[in-house]
Amino acid sequence: MDRERRPESESDWMGRRSAVSRCSTPEVAGVKHFVASVDELSEDGSQAIVDADGLQIVVFYVGGEYHALADFCIHQGARLSEGKLTGKMEVGADGISKEYDEDHPCVICPWHEWKFDVETGRNVSDDQYVTPTFDVSVEDERVYVHR
Ligand code: FES
């Protein structure tokens, strides 16, 4: 992995701390940006992109929850919205085997296939690399991202 682009801390990227995405959270910080109607983001695996004060943010609807990430890969800048959603490999209870958890969504970067947990933004191979995430709320059947 390219370690030259590693942030010093989570708060270094975009000047904000990376936050865990939430679904339908009524009280969240940041300016609210309309993303799409609930109907437009109702199919599992669907996504929408919003420009939030100059930052492209992709909102994925997967597993019944909304997850918002900066629409760029922290490796070399590919758009994560052009990546593929998938599950997550986890180490099994024996500490050796691996189990595929399809209920734990990740996005695979289209350029070099780094894989990011869409809930936390963390690279699943090296959690020092974190894509910024944003809070999501739903009001009156409208999905908003907060930045
Ligand atoms: S740009 Fe290289 S893994 Fe995303």
From TrEMBL:
The keyword Iron-sulfur applies. It comes from Salinirubellus salinus. It comes from the Archaea. It holds the Pfam family Rieske. GO terms for molecular function: 2 iron, 2 sulfur cluster binding; metal ion binding. Residues 33-145 form the Rieske domain. This is Rieske (2Fe-2S) protein. Keywords: 2Fe-2S, Iron, Iron-sulfur, Metal-binding.
